[in-house]
Design goal:
Layout lengths: L1 H21 L8 E4 L4 E4 L8 E5 L4 E7 L4 E3 L2 E3 L1 E5 L5 E5 L3 E3 L5 H13 L6 H16 L4 H24 L4 H10 L4 E4 L4 E4 L1 H10 L4 H11 L11 H18 L6 H11 L9 H18 L4 H18 L2
Antiparallel strand pairs: 1-4, 1-9, 2-3, 4-7, 5-6, 7-8, 10-11
Helix pairs in contact: 2-3, 2-4, 3-4, 4-7, 6-7, 7-8, 8-9, 8-10, 9-11, 10-11
Length: about 325
């Protein structure tokens, strides 16, 4: 009897445990994120389906359904996805314009999107501005300092990318002014060139903010290669002052940095200016800039700075010691 009771007890226990083992784990909701600007959400999964709305780059979507077959749209072949926006609006988007999205990999995904978009040389200003806005918001919500550095670097590269389009496209003032204001003090207007530029001072501050992280050196090079306000028109002291403020400043901070060779080549070119026709004050100003540059080069390896030093001494001699 006791054996029979034991078997019955074990059977009852197994019956209680069976649902636990048989139950499927809760399914994780799939998500997508738009990887382009102006992605069209349609009422049906067809290229000619009624347009429901257009989505900004970086819009996070809930994936509700996937089409049974892939379809070719233009040169892209992919599935259609029925998705829902954060506001609850539903529709279909073509898979070539969205990426799988996992919240825990948000930073990596954002940077992947940025890399893809920045490689598109034909992108119009509106798409470039959309990317810069997206990266600005992502940087402000960065989970840690290292992520913030990576996102801010991508953001300012996108800003420069967008400004490049302003120089070649006929963009109405009312179309770009709100975007320019949104960048805050990060941009300055060059009256002589009639163009908006990234303020290199802000980039140098970001280098200081993130010093110790790999992105700090990249910020320094961005600052060194950002055009400065005004025009020197061949005036030697001005040319040397600009060089000291740009590639010279990079070498002061990173004398053995990965871009040191390029910085030295740019300095060599700047030192090719003619300082012979200067008046007394001009010569004194030039010598001041040469002294500053020579002090900077003191941290650079002798073999690498040889040509620059030769040109520096030649210009010093021409200007009168």
């Amino acid at each position: 009897m006791s054996q029979r009771c034991l078997m019955l007890a074990m059977l009852v226990l197994l019956c209680q445990l069976t649902p636990v083992f048989a139950a499927e784990p809760p399914k994780t909701e799939k998500q997508r994120i738009t990887a382009a600007s102006g992605v069209k959400m349609r009422a049906t999964p067809r290229p000619d389906g009624q347009e429901v709305t257009r989505l900004f780059i970086g819009t996070e979507l809930r994936e509700l359904e996937r089409s049974e077959r892939q379809e070719t749209v233009g040169s892209k072949k992919d599935y259609w996805y029925r998705v829902a926006t954060p506001e609850g609006q539903e529709g279909w988007v073509f898979g070539a314009f969205v990426l799988p999205f996992e919240p825990e990999r948000r930073v990596q995904t954002v940077l992947e999107i940025a890399g893809q978009r920045l490689a598109d040389e034909k992108a119009p200003f509106v798409d470039r501005a959309d990317l810069a806005n997206f990266l600005k918001g992502a940087a402000e919500k960065a989970p840690d300092k290292a992520s913030a550095a990576r996102l801010e670097l991508a953001r300012w590269r996108a800003v420069r990318w967008a400004l490049g389009a302003l120089a070649t496209e006929e963009v109405p003032k009312k179309a770009y002014e709100p975007w320019v204001k949104r960048q805050g003090e990060g941009l300055v207007y060059n009256e002589l060139g009639a163009e908006w530029l990234v303020d290199s001072k802000g980039l140098w501050k970001l280098e200081e903010k993130y010093r110790g992280l790999p992105e700090a050196e990249a910020f320094a090079w961005e600052a060194a290669t950002t055009p400065l306000l005004g025009e020197c028109e061949g005036y030697a002291p001005c040319v040397l002052a600009a060089a000291n403020a740009a590639e010279g400043e990079y070498l002061r901070r990173y004398p053995t940095g990965p871009q040191a060779g390029k910085a030295l080549a740019m300095l060599e070119e700047a030192l090719g200016t003619d300082g012979v026709e200067l008046d007394q004050d001009g010569r004194a100003e030039l010598r001041k800039e040469l002294d500053k540059l020579e002090a900077t080069l003191g941290k650079v390896e002798p073999a690498k700075k040889k040509k620059v030093m030769e040109k520096l001494q030649a210009l010093r001699k021409a200007a009168g010691r």
